[in-house]
Amino acid sequence: MLVEKNVPLQPSNTFGIVAKALRLVHVRSEADVAEALQDADLQSAPKFVLGGGSNIVLTGDVKPLVLKVEIMGKRLVSESARGWVVEAGAGENWHELVTWTLQNGYPGLENLALIPGTVGASPVQNIGAYGVELQDRFDSLDAVDLATGQPFTLNAAQCAFGYRDSVFKHSAESRSGGPQGFGLAGKALITRVRFFLPKPWKAVLGYADIDKKMQQSGVTTPDAQQIYDWICEIRRAKLPDPKVIGNAGSFFKNPTVSPEQCADIIQREPKIVHYLLADGSVKLAAGWLIDACGWKGKSIGNAGVYDKQALVLVNRGGSANPVTGGEVMTLAKAIQTSVYERFGILLEHEPVVV
Ligand code: EPU
Q1: What is the pTM of this model?
Q2: Which atom of ligand 1 lies nearest, measured to the CA of 273?
Q3: What residues flank ligand 1, with Cβ below 6 Å?
Q4: Measured in angstroms, how far is the CA atom of residue 190 from the centroid of ligand 1?
Q5: Burial class (CB in 10 A: 0-12, 13-18, 19+), 263
Q6: Fewer CB atoms inside 10 Å of the end CB: C or N, the chain?
Q7: Is the Cβ–Cβ distance between 124 and 166 less than 8 Å?
């Protein structure tokens, strides 16, 4: 196990923010975690688990010991009449896993193509796009308790998935702790994730962008590869590629309001984009709210609002003169204030602020 000091993190976060890890350990296996936890010097240090860095805002050098997860491997665990179980190491790139499953004849993850980040981060925020959330394809995961070094396995119920949410985003101490105040934020390192891809495969359609592709192409019964290709095209057209323009995907969650609140807002703002949820509540499009407040294309310092999708904040300074975490958060707060003043809704940011 190699402990590196003063490691530049600019290549390890998709915003391209400049910061250093004061100490960093590359975790390539479960044994590396065990070794780090047994090391007298590292044992008691606070720890920060870093995956693909696609959902973080670094506001300074990272003082906790950074555990950079690089556990690799992809395999078919089992196949039955009900479906396929596929396992991947937490350090695998998410999109490469999706591509690999399709190439090997295990469809089901195609709607989640091109989401930046690693496999290990995917359950933390329960990634989702175009009608599929990770929880819909999740089997179980292996993790290590960072206090005791004990490995453990969680099923879907134990992960307490919600919209862009899981047990890994809550601390037991916080009032928002998961079920019975059970939270694992900062307490666990995910090592492997298993996915259940059901048979028979069924296309998940019904999103306006996909409908448009069906109409344009005349393909009415797309296969998984076709959906994958469409999703890649849709995302490339409206979301910035982090390799070209630094960003962390959607910066805010789509807020949920009661039908009464929604009716009240619609009276004032008849064009508001909203979707009725199964539980009777209403989800509002945060991108629309931000856009309606005139933020699209605007900047504060080198932090900008992407001009094709107001939900995405970007690094306008590139790698030569990169945005700072402070600038990103100043812009985020200014957006929250104007959306609150106009609509009475407090937007919640998605990335973890470090
Ligand atoms: N809209 C605007 N202006 C904007 C952006 C959006 O008016 O600047 C409107 C759109 O016209 C549309 C609505 O808002 O009517 C929703 O926009 P879109 O379909 O682009 O989806 P979204 O709600 O903004 C969510 C996810 C994305 C995911 C897409 C597709 C969240 C926070 N974001 O975006 O996830 O790819 O749906 O399923 O739930 C991510 O999490 O990083 C992410 C990109």
Answers
A1: 0.95
A2: 15
A3: 129-130, 239, 249-250, 253-254, 273, 285, 287-288, 291, 296, 309-311
A4: 28
A5: exposed
A6: N
A7: yes
Instruction: Ligand 1 pocket test: pick from 204, 250, 256 the residue with the most ligand atoms within 8 Å of its Cβ.
Output: 250
Tokens of 267: 């009276």
C-alpha torsion 256→54→178→259, nearest 10: 0
Residue-wise pLDDT tens digits, 231-252: 999 999 999 999 999 999 999 9
Nearest to 32 by CA among 67, 77, 80, 83: 67
Token digits of residue 339: 């959306």
Residue 176: the pLDDT is: 55
Distance between CA 98 and CA 107 in Å, rounded? 9
The helix (run of H) or strand (run of E) holding residue 50 is: strand 47-50
Looking at residue 118, its amino acid is T
User: Residue 123 corresponds to which amino acid?
Assistant: P
The 3-state DSSP class for residue 9 equals: coil
Strand order through the sheet with 3-8: 3-8, 20-27, 65-69, 47-50
Report the candidate in 314, 310, 308 with the shortest Cα–Cα distance to residue 295.
310
